[in-house]
Each structure stands twice: as C-alpha cells, then as structure tokens.
Write a structure and sequence with these properties.
The chain is α/β, with parallel strands linked by helices and 311 residues long. 45% of the residues lie in helices and 12% in strands. The chain has 9 helices and 7 strands. The chain has a 7-stranded parallel beta sheet, with helices on both faces. α2 (48-61) links the parallel β2 (35-40) and β3.
Length: 311
C-alpha cells in the first residue's frame, strides 16, 4: 500500500523513536509522505528489534522511514546523526524532541545524581540536538522544531512524579525561550503537550525507581502507604476508554503538514483534561503580551523565508 500524499516532502529527525510516541510518530510522518529518520538507541543491541520493525514497516508500506543510531546523551552520536542526514538529503526540515524518561517514587528518595541523569535525558538532550541541527536550519532560513512536552508542566500534578515533572517543566521553559530566538531566522516552534496516557505506551511501565529504597519505604510503608496505587488507578480512571496514544502522533503529523507560518505554538492532546490547556493558555498569552509591551512583538511570528531558501 502506497503512503498517502502530504503537503510537501520534508526531511525529519525524531529522537526516542524505538517505541511509544516516537515510533508511532515516525510511522505516521513516513506514511504522510515525508523522509523520516527515526533515532534509535543501541541499534545493534537492545534497539535491534526497533530497527527491524521500522525496516519492515517501510517495506510493507513503501514509505521513506529510515533509522539512525542516536543516543541523545552523546554529543558525537547526535552530531553524526545530523551530519548523515545532511550528507544524504542536503537539508533537515524538522527536528522532533521526543526522547525522554519517566521516574516514579517519592522525590526525596531519588539521589541528586538520578535527578541530573533525568535532566540529561529530558532537557540537555534537546540542547545537543539543537546545536547540531539549528546551524543548518538557520543557513536555509526555515525549519520547524517540535518539542514533546507534558501536561504535568502546568496541569494537575499527582504525587511521586516530582523529578520527572521538574525535568519536563525545564524542557518546556527552554522551548519557549528558543521559540522567540528562532523566529527571526525563519524557524518555527510547536510544543506538543500530551496528557497522561497510561495505556498504549511503556511510559509508566518503564519508569525509573528511586535509588534510596530506605527513604522510599519510609514513605510507601508510612503515612503515604497506598498513595502510589491510588494515584496510578486514579490517573487510569480519568483516561477515557477510547484514549489513543496514536492521537499524539496524528497531532504532530498535522503540525508538520500545516503550511509554514500557520503552525500553532502549542497543541494539547490530553483526553483526561487535567487543566494544562487552561493554564498554558494564560501563560502563553502573558508571554505574547510582554513581548508586545517591550517592542518585540515580531518575535511571535517567523520572518519571511530567504529568497535563496528551498521552497
């Protein structure tokens, strides 16, 4: 079966594409007619199955879905991935920051080193890729950076997810700052905000645990006994029966296929409606208002493309 036609073939790199939202999005974008490079961690080891699945999908659907070795914690691999894409395609149109990791447990029970590692995956990884890819986008005067955030940054926040929430909030804040610093280069920003999908991905199943088990047990067997189970059950109950994690992939696909200059700044995909859309709406309006008040309203809109830029 042939891939459906899109508004124009774009060269896309997505991180964390071995499974979950990343794998779903890579396939959706490839099926939409784009050239997609799916970043895979350890492609000859634990990521081998993901590489084989992507190749099978590309063959079955006759789409341009490729895999690239990409450990977002390694500067050399990030740079090599971008260099390969430029060598093969001559350009990179879209970067999707999807790689991330969740942890679950009392915040006090996580060591500072664990928080630093979590920050590395969820935040510093985006900086590594931006520094590798943005020079190419700036040279062309166009591009799109998509950040996969979380409703936890401003929505309701259940207990025992504090380190993860803090890391995603930092990534979201960085995305907002980048947005204003890229518009004059002609580069757009969209922040995708998924809610708590408890089914259909391995997000919760693969969540990290605190290293200090003594402290964790003091909470879990003490006054917070039963809170973990109640929190997880409560989140699952809030999620509608028809909640589909593929809706996140479809939302990203829609943004990529939206004409340049008309892409939304933020898109919420939150079946449970935990309040993030309301709070983000106020915060994003305040950001826009401040830029107007200080005479930088133009930073809210991308500059016209360079005459020499590819269409």
């Amino acid at each position: 079966m042939e891939g459906k036609q899109s508004m124009g073939r774009q060269v896309i790199l997505i991180t964390g594409a071995s499974s979950g939202f990343g794998a779903m999005t890579a396939r959706a974008l490839a099926t939409a007619g784009h050239c997609v490079y799916a970043g895979i961690l350890d492609p000859t080891g634990r990521g081998k199955t993901a590489v084989e699945d992507a190749a099978r999908f590309a063959g079955d659907w006759k789409v341009d879905l490729r895999t690239v070795e990409l450990d977002v914690l390694q500067d050399t691999q990030v740079g090599a991935a971008v260099n390969r894409i430029i060598a093969e395609q001559g350009q990179i149109d879209v970067v999707i920051h999807n790689a991330g990791h969740m942890c679950f447990g009392p915040a006090e029970a996580f060591t500072p080193e664990q928080l630093a590692a979590l920050y590395d995956v969820n935040v510093l990884s985006t900086q590594r890729l931006n520094r590798a890819a943005l020079p190419h986008m700036r040279k062309r005067g166009q591009g799109l950076v998509v950040w996969v955030s979380s409703s936890s940054t401003r929505g309701g926040t259940p207990p025992f997810l504090g380190p993860y929430f803090a890391a995603k909030a930092a990534m979201d804040a960085l995305a907002i700052s980048y947005a204003g610093e890229l518009t004059r280069w002609g580069i757009e920003t969209t922040i995708i905000v998924p809610g708590a999908f408890t089914k259909g991905t391995n997000h919760f199943r693969d969540a990290g645990a605190p290293a200090d088990q003594a402290v964790a047990l003091a909470y879990m067997d003490g006054p917070y006994k039963g809170v973990k189970e109640k929190a997880l059950a409560g989140l699952a109950a809030l999620e509608p029966a028809d909640a589909d994690p593929q809706s996140v992939a479809r939302a990203i696909e829609a943004v990529v296929d939206t004409p340049r200059g008309k892409r939304p700044f933020r898109v919420h995909v939150d079946p449970a409606q935990d309040g993030a859309e309301i709070v983000n709406g106020v915060a994003d309006r305040m950001r826009a208002e401040l830029l107007r008040r200080i005479g930088l309203e133009d930073l809210l809109h991308i500059a016209a493309p360079k005459p020499s830029a590819s269409p």
